[in-house]
Design a protein that fits this description.
Layout (H helix, E strand, L loop, with lengths): L15 E4 L18 H11 L3 E4 L2 E4 L4 E3 L7 E4 L5 E4 L1 E4 L3 E4 L4 E5 L10 E3 L2 E5 L1 E2 L5 E3 L3 E4 L14 E3 L21 E8 L2 E4 L3 H6 L25 E3 L10 E5 L4 E5 L11 E4 L5 E4 L6 E7 L1 E6 L12 E3 L2 E2 L30 E14 L2 E5 L2 E10 L2 E3 L2 E5 L4 E3 L13 E2 L2 E3 L2 E5 L9 E3 L2 E2 L2 E3 L2 E3 L6 E4 L20 E3 L2 E5 L7 E6 L10 E4 L2 E5 L4 E5 L6 E4 L2 E3 L4 E4 L17 E4 L2 E2 L6 E3 L2 E4 L2 E2 L8 H6 L23 E7 L3 E7 L11 E6 L4 E5 H7 L2 E4 L9 E7 L2 E2 L29
Parallel strand pairs: 1-2, 2-5, 3-6, 4-22, 5-23, 6-24, 11-19, 22-27, 23-27, 24-28, 27-29, 27-30, 28-31, 29-32, 29-33, 30-34, 31-35, 32-36, 33-37, 34-38, 35-39, 36-40, 38-41, 39-42, 40-43, 41-44, 42-45, 43-46, 44-47, 45-48, 46-49, 47-50, 48-51, 50-53, 51-54
Antiparallel strand pairs: 7-21, 8-9, 9-20, 10-11, 10-21, 12-18, 13-14, 14-17, 15-16, 15-18, 16-17, 19-20, 25-26, 52-53, 55-56, 56-59, 57-58, 57-60, 60-61
């Protein structure tokens, strides 16, 4: 069978079907008599065998997901030239009233058939669920926590609470408590009785009792620790936390939505959208009859949610928004032969669903589409996927991963069920992982001949892209998962301002074996990667990464190091005497090894630079969006204040406080120009973004006190100032001059 499915010939007499907001589904679909709904246009196209649908500008609210299959092969669904078409899975909330002037708290009622969403959007800007530091001291137990008071039990709906465990670098007094510093798991509360907090299952067991290897040397999943940290970073989703501008809470009993508006928002006029659907478009074929030759162009997919993290499953992350799920998740899921009764293949954990998805589809072209205001992953392509193209699209304001290609559950599938010859080119990824901060703009599992080129990735909380899987068994002297990946090329991408929240990742991250030889393995060439905030690697060849060429890339200001790292080779009967084969050649970097060739790893012809402009101008110019697509990266016509900073941590001497934080991934569409730091006893200072980029902390002169202090930070751009960050943990005044603070630390399970 040809990898590129043959399209159905369009009949000579085929006509375009027209859709317009003022149309009628009783109409014929001509330009003079357009239909009103896209779903009806698709039905009409099937009946008439017309394969072109043109949609006039406007917002089209979907009550059910659009569904295409093999019978729709050859279809073209396009926005009218120069017009903005939005397919929305949301509903607008109106009739707001002020209910608490002191907290500037407004309320409206959700329709009774709308489930409580995890997101709302006010005039196109994401709001956050109300959150705060725990107001009680917590002690972890087998089933949850015991608290030092029964305060939480008296809150309005304590069972709505969600505990969040942020990884990232430990920053002075701010610990890293995720399931590895590259994760941010979440578990809901099941019930609170007095001082006893019962956490929801199976999330709690999947996040605190991940089984050890029979030898007892480490967790059987080989990826991270057996448990989250002892206390959450913050609590989320409580009425009692309300009052911070840009935060909301939904009472699931009364259907009341509460929100404190940000500066400039007028809820009597604002467009407040809540997602209702969890899927906007599904293109589903079968292995024997794939959907094929479909074009989706100029469409904006918006306002879809994802409910599962709010159930007992929670969000027990393992990496890249893959999750441990089910009642046996901690003890059996994807552990294969490493534990008795493990399910196979190894590392086939649960992926995040896509709000737009394709399964067994060939030669589908997404062209200049926008994926935004979404609660799961933006676009997910699984099963047999051949010669698909995602080009000129924008992925932004997405809760999880931006784009997902190929799963990790069928590493040796035949061509008909494998991802082959797919192209991800000239796309913009920004503010991806907006809720689930381990989300990554581009995530590729086991795939062949994938071409990832000329994409721009910026302002994201974790890694820029991830490709490959299943290499972790080298930690216990075993080979990574055997797979059919080969010939993938990652070239001429521009990745900047990434890993803002989490750590131990990279601009370009690879896992597992990528080919049979260096010649047919993965090629990473001509990419420019800079301005990494947390520790990690610009280009990261992680466990089991083999048969990879890293050539002619620019890596600058990447915090930890440029390229890493070598791993022992256990493939094909290897005993670990050599390393997995790698070629690291002709790169331009700020730091790096001298030339060497030993144990199957060659480093040669690399160049040390001390400024980005010392790299070849042509290399810098060719990375990122090509000329025809650079309009995607233009500043928005309207900017807003940035999101608040996070992870504020402080170190105090008798005379001064040293405060650090993580900058916001969402800058509001205008660059942050300064931060303002406040202490809870009225002290204040500022630092410019330029200085923060250089130093990553600020010094605040203190007045004498015997009380513990907390610190908050705001971020400002040309459009305004963010809400305050969550406060730092309390910092006691020292009795004497303390030692200097330590450097940020990685998880010991990296």
């Amino acid at each position: 069978m040809s990898l590129l499915a043959t399209g159905l010939a369009t009949p000579a007499a085929a006509q375009t079907i027209y859709v317009a907001p003022q149309g009628s589904d009783q109409a014929t679909g001509t330009q003079a008599a357009p239909v009103r709904s896209v779903s009806h246009a698709i039905e009409l196209a099937r009946r008439t065998r017309d394969h072109s649908i043109e949609v006039a500008g406007g917002t089209y609210s979907l009550t059910t997901p659009l569904a295409l299959s093999a019978v729709d092969s050859g279809l073209s669904l396009k926005a009218a030239v120069g017009q903005r078409v939005v397919l929305s899975g949301g509903t607008r909330i109106t009739h707001w009233r002020l209910v608490d002037a002191k907290r500037s708290l407004w309320s409206a009622t959700l329709p009774p058939d709308v489930p409580a969403p995890r997101q709302i959007y006010v005039d196109g800007v994401r709001a956050s669920r109300a959150k705060g530091r725990s107001p009680v001291a917590l002690t972890m137990t087998a089933d949850g926590y015991s608290a030092d008071s029964d305060l939480l039990a008296h809150w309005r709906h304590p069972e709505d609470l969600e505990f969040v465990y942020t990884g990232g670098n430990a920053l002075w007094g701010e610990p890293s408590v995720g399931l590895g510093s590259w994760t941010e798991p979440r578990c809901p509360v099941a019930a609170i009785h007095g001082t006893i907090i019962e956490m929801a299952e199976p999330c709690w067991k999947n996040s605190t009792t991940r089984i050890m290897l029979p030898s007892g040397i480490r967790s059987a999943n080989l990826v991270g620790p057996v448990s989250i940290g002892k206390v959450p970073t913050f609590l989320e989703n409580a009425y009692e936390f309300l009052g911070t501008p840009g935060e909301f809470y939904i009472d699931r009993i009364t259907h009341a939505l509460y929100y404190t508006p940000r500066s400039g928002e007028d809820l009597t006029r604002a467009d407040v959208e809540v997602p209702v659907l969890q899927s906007l478009l599904k293109i589903d074929g079968t292995e024997s009859a794939p959907a094929h030759d479909i074009t989706i162009a100029g469409i904006t997919f918006s306002y879809a949610g994802w409910q599962e993290p709010g159930t007992g499953e929670g969000f027990s992350e393992i990496q890249a928004n893959y999750r441990v799920t089910g009642p046996d998740g901690a003890s059996r899921q994807a552990l294969c032969t490493l534990v008795p009764g493990g399910t196979c293949p190894y590392a086939s954990w649960m992926p995040e669903p896509g709000n737009v998805s394709m399964h067994f589809a060939d030669a589908v072209h997404f062209e200049r589409d926008t994926f935004t205001h979404l609660g799961a992953a933006g676009l997910a392509i699984t099963g047999g996927a051949h010669a698909n193209i995602v080009e000129g699209c924008v992925f932004t304001d997405i809760s999880g991963n931006g784009f997902e290609l190929a799963g990790v559950d069928t590493p040796s599938a035949p061509d008909s069920a494998f991802a082959i010859d797919n192209h991800i080119e000239n796309n913009l990824f920004r503010n991806v992982g907006a809720e689930f901060h381990g989300g990554i703009p581009i995530v590729v599992g086991y795939a062949r001949f994938t071409h990832i080129a000329h994409n721009q990735i910026d302002h994201v909380p974790y890694a820029g892209m991830s490709i490959g899987w299943g290499g972790w068994p080298d930690k216990i002297a075993l080979p990574g998962v055997a797979n059919r990946s080969t010939g993938n090329v990652i070239e001429k991408n521009r990745i900047t301002r990434f890993m803002i929240d989490l750590s131990d990742g990279g601009g370009i991250y690879t896992q597992g074996r990528t080919g049979e030889t260096i010649a047919d393995g993965e090629r990473v060439e001509g990419n420019v990667v800079d301005n990494q905030f947390s520790s990690g690697h610009a280009i990261y060849t992680d466990n089991g990464s083999a048969m990879i060429t890293v050539r002619n890339n620019v890596m600058f200001n990447t915090n930890h190091d440029n390229w890493g790292s070598r791993h022992k080779d256990y493939y094909d009967g290897g005993k670990g005497e050599d390393n997995d084969p790698l070629a690291i050649e002709g790169n331009w970097w700020q730091q790096g090894d001298p030339d060497s060739s030993a144990k199957q790893v060659t480093e040669s012809g690399n160049h040390i630079i001390t400024a980005l402009n010392q790299a070849p101008a042509e290399l810098l110019a060719n990375a990122g969006l090509e000329t025809a697509f650079r309009d995607l990266g233009a500043p928005p016509s309207h900017s807003v204040a940035p999101a608040p900073p996070s992870a504020v941590a402080a170190f105090v001497t008798p005379a001064d406080a040293y405060i650090t934080w993580r900058p916001p991934a969402f800058d509001g569409g205008a660059a942050v120009d300064h931060y303002t730091i406040h202490s809870d006893d009225g002290l204040q200072t500022t630092i410019t973004q330029t200085d923060f980029d250089q130093f990553s902390y600020v010094e605040l002169h203190l007045t004498p006190t015997t009380k513990a202090r907390r610190f908050t930070v705001t971020a400002s751009n040309s459009a305004g100032t963010s809400a305050e960050s969550l406060p730092s943990l309390p910092v006691d005044p020292p009795l004497q001059h303390p030692p200097c603070p330590g450097r940020p630390s990685l998880s010991p399970f990296a």
